């Protein structure tokens, strides 16, 4: 459609130019006097004429006094005939310079042919474009079963290489091998080694699986066929399998190359376990992928990369040797990785000198690569909205909180009483977190409403942790209920402000018992088999593998844990009432306390 518009515009301008030319031509003709034939004859008789140029049916006459005139003669009648008809004496013509200009040149074309040809041309163009668009629609219908894979050629612009992927060192090491397979397959084949067919990238969302796959293609400099698992599945049965066949056919033609199936869990789910209509189609598609991967002969240098964040739901047949036998795990980034990722994304952003990427990395535990890239973007947007030319560290810290908790809602009107209650609630969280030995240090306390929260206390770990001890969880519970306890101790009753704290606490307590085996009475086992089902959307379904009696015990244990936490929190709040009042006063005055200001009141942790 865009093309059509462009072509149309070009035609239109050409048309305008020609029209302008015509009108100009017409004007230039009219500038000179038009006289009748009779007058010309008279002038010739009186020997006033010095030259005549004959141009088709036009006679351009120049008089002796240097004036010009134009006369139209009858078409088809020659000039000499005309002179004969008027029986002009020969001697009158001797002194006249008569020239005959050929009218078959450009002028003739423009005047006689173009006016007929032009509409024809336009009509032809119109028919051509109409045919073309109809054909396009036809082709689309016929190509339904073909793969929609996007192919990235060898030397496309915006090529991604390993340099653009920060962190994930082990995964990069493994994939360097794949690059070598693609570049020098001989080296491996001569030693009788079998080149791996499939490599499965595993990692949480946003850890850079898609990015890394593209980097492999960029490094190896081979064609790259990209297709998402969901693109195989359509409304119609059989389309997925046909697309798989087509994709692999194309790939084999352009070997060595990479076929990348993103989000493979969309088709690669365990077979025979689905509910709902689409699973037959999925199974066929998966079967076809398996068949195609088996069908490569030893020397076909096509490597299939696939990515998923749900390895647990994949069909075991996908994972056996000869298919996706290589599994590369992309870890969530640790603090050093986060700094490196920030560095990659800070390249084209003007950061102020005071921006320390390390500090940002410290504040963002649990952020994925995608989160970090988004974070810098948010920071840039915040800075731009203040018409700054560079991004300051405050913009980025503000963005961290915006991403973590939600945007600040300064305009939300709260009454003085609500503000007071929120101040006590948050001060309670902060103090309990501060005085317990195993909790993360408090980074910020605020009573400015953010997202859904009325206020918030930001705790951040000093280092990345992969394991957590029971004592940490118990203290975490105490911090969660601290807001509730403080409200109760000070005002004698609680508000709805503690709702989400309590829900979180209850969920955590249940997890300690059913998932982590941390209950004293129920012992080291898990309770409940969690299973994801696809039925009318996503649903986590828990299958109970314990009796009613155990269920009762779990409920009791949850209460024990919460009671313990309440007791601990209440002790700390009651023993530090003076400090609590000081923190509340500071909060009511400043609304937000940074780590340093908070520690000035409560002392070092
Ligand atoms: P996934 O496929 O694992 O869900 P993507 O590869 O699509 O994640 O990553 C999304 C974006 O996050 C990337 O385009 C990139 O900008 C950023 N990103 C993620 N991980 C990294 C990383 N390790 N290094 C640099 N950028 C990353
Ligand atoms: Mg992805
Ligand atoms: Zn709270």
Automatic annotation (TrEMBL):
Positions with a binding annotation for Zn(2+): 425, 429, 501
Entry-linked InterPro entries: AAA+_ATPase, AAA_lid_3, ATPase_AAA_core, ATPase_AAA_CS, FtsH, P-loop_NTPase, Peptidase_M41, Peptidase_M41-like
Ranges of residues in domain AAA+ ATPase: 195-334
Catalytic residues (UniProt): 426
UniProt keyword Aminoacyl-tRNA synthetase present: no
One GO term describing the cellular component: plasma membrane
Keyword Hydrolase appears in the UniProt entry: yes
HAMAP family listed in its UniProt record: FtsH (MF_01458)
Protein name: ATP-dependent zinc metalloprotease FtsH
Organism: Candidatus Falkowbacteria bacterium CG02_land_8_20_14_3_00_36_14
Lineage: Bacteria, Candidatus Falkowiibacteriota
Gene, per the UniProt record: ftsH
């Amino acid at each position: 459609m865009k093309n059509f518009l462009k072509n149309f515009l070009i035609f239109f301008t050409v048309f305008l130019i020609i029209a302008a030319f015509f009108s100009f031509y017409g004007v230039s003709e009219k500038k000179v006097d038009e006289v009748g034939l009779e007058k010309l004859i008279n002038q010739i008789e009186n020997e006033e004429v010095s030259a005549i140029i004959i141009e088709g049916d036009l006679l351009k006459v120049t008089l002796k006094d240097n004036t010009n005139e134009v006369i139209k003669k009858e078409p088809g009648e020659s000039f000499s005939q005309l002179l004969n008809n008027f029986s002009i004496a020969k001697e009158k013509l001797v002194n006249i310079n008569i020239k005959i200009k050929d009218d078959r040149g450009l002028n003739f074309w423009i005047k006689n042919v173009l006016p007929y040809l032009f509409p024809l041309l336009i009509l032809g163009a119109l028919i051509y474009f109409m045919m073309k668009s109809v054909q396009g629609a036809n082709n689309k219908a016929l190509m339904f079963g073909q793969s929609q894979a996007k192919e990235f050629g060898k030397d496309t612009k915006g090529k991604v290489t390993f340099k653009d992927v920060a962190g994930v060192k082990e995964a990069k090491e493994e994939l360097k091998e794949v690059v070598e397979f693609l570049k020098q397959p001989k080296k491996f084949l001569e030693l009788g080694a079998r080149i791996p067919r499939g490599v499965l990238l595993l990692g949480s969302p946003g850890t850079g699986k898609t990015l890394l796959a593209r980097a492999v293609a960029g490094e190896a400099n081979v064609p790259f066929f990209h297709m998402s698992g969901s693109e195989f599945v359509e409304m119609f049965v059989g389309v997925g399998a046909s697309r798989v066949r087509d994709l692999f056919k194309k790939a084999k033609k352009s070997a060595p190359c990479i076929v990348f199936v993103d989000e493979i869990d969309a088709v690669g789910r365990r077979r025979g376990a689905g509910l709902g209509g689409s699973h037959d189609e999925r199974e066929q598609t998966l079967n076809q992928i398996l068949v195609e991967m088996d069908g490569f002969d030893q020397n076909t240098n096509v490597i299939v990369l696939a990515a998923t964040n749900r390895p647990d739901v994949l069909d075991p047949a996908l994972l056996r040797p000869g298919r996706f036998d290589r599994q590369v795990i992309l870890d969530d980034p640790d603090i050093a990785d986060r700094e490196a990722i920030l560095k990659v994304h800070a390249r084209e952003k003007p950061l102020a000198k005071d921006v320390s990427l390390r500090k940002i990395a410290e504040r963002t535990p649990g952020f994925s690569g995608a989160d970090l890239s988004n974070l810098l973007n948010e920071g840039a947007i915040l800075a731009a909205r203040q018409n700054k030319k560079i991004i300051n560290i405050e913009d980025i810290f503000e963005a961290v909180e915006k991403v973590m908790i939600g945007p600040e809602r300064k305009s939300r009107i709260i009454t003085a009483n609500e503000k007071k209650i929120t101040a006590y609630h948050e001060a309670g969280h902060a103090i309990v977190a501060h005085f317990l030995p195993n909790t993360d240090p408090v980074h910020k306390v605020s009573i400015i409403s953010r997202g859904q929260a009325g206020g918030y206390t930001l705790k951040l770990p000093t280092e990345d942790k992969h394991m957590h001890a029971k004592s940490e969880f118990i203290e975490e519970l105490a911090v969660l209920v601290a807001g509730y306890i403080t409200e109760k101790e000070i005002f004698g009753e609680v508000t709805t402000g503690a709702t989400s704290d309590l829900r979180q606490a209850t969920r955590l307590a249940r997890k300690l018992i059913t998932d982590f085996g941390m209950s004293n009475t129920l012992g080291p086992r898990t309770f409940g088999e969690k299973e994801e089902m696809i039925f009318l959307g996503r649903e986590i379904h828990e299958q109970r593998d314990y009796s009613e009696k155990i269920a009762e015990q779990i409920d009791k244990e949850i209460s024990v844990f919460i009671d313990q936490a309440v007791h601990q929190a209440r002790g700390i709040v009651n023993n530090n009432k003076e400090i609590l009042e000081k923190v509340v006063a500071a909060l009511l005055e400043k609304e937000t306390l940074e780590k340093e200001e908070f520690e000035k009141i409560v002392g070092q942790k």
